[in-house]
Design brief:
With 263 residues, this protein is an alpha/beta fold. The protein is 32% helix and 21% strand. It has a single domain, classed as Metallo-dependent phosphatases (Purple Acid Phosphatase, chain A, domain 2). The N and C termini lie far apart (54 Å). Residues 1-21 have low confidence and may be disordered.
Length: 263
């Protein structure tokens, strides 16, 4: 007896499910790996030798908003003034390989280099290993036009005391010295639910001690820009991409200004 075609299709779909949506590997032989470092090399090579001037875009909390992300990419590609793009974490909903692959496909259409930070959703279901395979270490730095960008994992809720990696972070901030202006980038701002009061205060103190130009985060699914701690340090919290907006950060002579862009 011939198997009904609808049943065949249903079985095929079910069989493919773990590979597309489950916590699987990204795929043996994939040429996509350590994308952050590759894009950092593109950024630094194309720096043009200009000092303390530039512009980058900040996106965050992609989750499953793939249509909105694709629309943002088209909008960003039309703006030739942008030097690179930062995504401040939560690029997946469940940390699944299929989500990382979908993200990678859409981001590959970006004209500008893109640097991706890790969020708490990205660490679910073994997602940290997938992130590291695709983008590289969760804690890293790079220097650009007189600024030191310090990306780090601060998704501390329900994790050991080692998050953030305080020794690494303090060293990374201190090594910039007086010659480079600090721009920390992490997923959760100090006033979020990811950090207890002690860790939050420790981060705030570190940023102030090292004279951060602007602190970039996300996680709250709302846009906010200001100086919540009254210490002269600007904090930018990017909205989720589902609200169809991102932020442009312009750096000029050691200072930052921001513009919220709707698309």
């Amino acid at each position: 007896m011939r198997t009904p075609i609808l049943l065949v299709l249903a079985l095929a779909l079910f069989a493919c499910q773990p590979f597309d949506y489950g916590p699987a590997v990204l795929g043996a032989g994939s040429r996509e790996s350590h994308l952050n470092q590759r894009n950092i090399e593109r950024i630094t090579v194309a720096s043009g030798g200009l000092h303390l001037r530039g512009k980058f875009a900040v996106l965050a909390d992609i989750h499953v908003y793939y249509d909105e992300l694709a629309a943002a990419v088209r909008n960003l590609n039309a703006d030739t003034s942008i030097d690179f793009v930062v995504i401040a974490g939560d690029v997946t909903q469940y940390g699944y390989a299929g989500e990382y692959r979908m993200l990678s496909t859409i981001l590959s259409r970006l004209r500008a280099p893109v640097i991706v930070g890790i969020g708490n959703h990205d660490e679910q279901a073994g997602g940290t290993a997938l992130y590291e395979e695709l983008y590289g270490p969760t804690d890293f730095t790079f220097a650009w036009r007189g600024y030191e960008f310090v990306f780090f994992d601060d998704n501390a809720r329900g994790t050991p005391q080692s998050v953030p990696d305080w020794a690494w972070l303090e060293t990374a901030l201190a090594q910039a010295g007086d010659s480079l202006r600090i721009i920390p980038v992490c997923h959760a701002p100090p006033f979020s639910d990811q950090l207890d009061s002690a860790k939050s205060q420790r981060l705030v103190d570190l940023y102030a001690e090292n004279h951060a130009v602007i602190v970039i985060g996300a996680h709250l699914h709302n846009y906010h820009y200001g100086q919540p701690f009254g210490d002269g340090i600007d904090y930018l919290t990017a909205d989720d991409i589902g609200d169809r907006d991102y932020v442009l950060v312009t750096l000029e002579d050691g200072k930052a200004s921001v513009e919220r862009v709707f698309f």
